[in-house]
């Protein structure tokens, strides 16, 4: 534990988050979490447990009520440099082409250039979207749109990637495909990734550690180490060890009263 704290790249220390002034509005309570550089951490819990709120606090999009959040040893008081974010919805603008959507953030930052345009095209090709650069978002499937949003988040090569339940609205086959893609990104780039999900199997498949949250208010009840070899393929889900991790998490949720039968 001491080595983990020493090597912390993202640190959440004693964080409470409330909206308004009453205890009834307490969303997160005493969250303590240290994430190492290059680690993939999933935050798993039921609806209303504050998963997305915690991610927004790490991203500097929400102020904490108590405690602190640091990245790379610096206090978070706004979106830090070197951070990419993928939201639940793809957030693509229908009046812009796919390439223009990928370039949108760097345009807002005044960093658009021929080099960035070439990088965006290469990124789209890598994600299977070559030839779709000039299409509009409404011409693409949900999975393709979400791939484009990941391309946008990765365009500036951030070392921290925050993903807020990005595949929740997708069909099962597309979700599996994108899980493998994200696992590949994690393995090849060693980015520090924090991933929000409701899915036990998704959390186990992707993660080095799974943070399990209870609700009312959101608080950490367990942090589970996932010891599965990388690179990961979907066949990992058929192994006894994968089944053991999934069963353990279901048992935790059953004890919390979130699952009635498991």
From TrEMBL:
PROSITE patterns: ABC_TRANSPORTER_1, ABC_TRANSPORTER_2. Pfam families: ABC_tran. InterPro entries: AAA+_ATPase, ABC_transporter-like_ATP-bd, ABC_transporter-like_CS, ABC_transporter_ATP-bind, P-loop_NTPase. The keyword ATP-binding applies. Residues 10-240 form the ABC transporter domain. Keywords: ATP-binding, Nucleotide-binding, Transport. It comes from the Bacteria. One of its GO terms (molecular function) is ATP hydrolysis activity. CDD domains: ABC_NrtD_SsuB_transporters (cd03293). Belongs to the ABC transporter superfamily. This is ATP-binding cassette domain-containing protein. The lineage of its organism: Bacteria, Pseudomonadati, Pseudomonadota, Alphaproteobacteria, Hyphomicrobiales.
């Amino acid at each position: 534990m001491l080595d983990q704290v020493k090597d912390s790249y993202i640190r959440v220390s004693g964080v409470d988050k409330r909206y308004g002034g009453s205890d009834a509005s307490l969303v997160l309570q005493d969250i303590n979490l240290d994430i190492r550089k290059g680690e993939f951490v999933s935050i798993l819990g039921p609806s209303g447990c504050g998963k997305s709120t915690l991610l927004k606090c790490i991203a500097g999009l929400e102020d904490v009520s108590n405690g602190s959040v640091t990245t790379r040893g610096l206090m978070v008081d706004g979106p830090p440099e070197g951070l990419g974010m993928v939201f639940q919805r793809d957030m693509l603008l229908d009046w812009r082409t796919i390439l223009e959507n990928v370039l949108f953030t760097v345009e807002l930052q005044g960093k658009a250039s021929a080099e960035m345009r070439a990088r965006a095209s290469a990124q789209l090709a890598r994600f299977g979207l070559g030839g779709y650069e000039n299409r509009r978002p409404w011409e693409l499937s949900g999975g393709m749109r979400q791939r484009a949003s990941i391309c946008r988040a990765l365009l500036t090569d951030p070392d921290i990637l925050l993903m807020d339940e990005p595949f929740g609205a997708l069909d099962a086959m597309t979700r599996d495909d994108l899980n493998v893609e994200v696992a590949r990104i994690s393995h090849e780039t060693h980015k520090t990734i924090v991933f929000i999900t409701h899915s036990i199997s998704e959390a186990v498949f992707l993660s080095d550690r799974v943070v399990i949250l209870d609700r009312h208010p959101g608080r950490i009840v367990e942090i589970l180490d996932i010891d599965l070899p990388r690179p990961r393929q979907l066949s990992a889900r058929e192994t006894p060890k994968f089944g053991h991790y999934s069963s353990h998490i279901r048992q935790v949720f059953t004890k919390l009263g979130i699952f009635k039968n498991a």
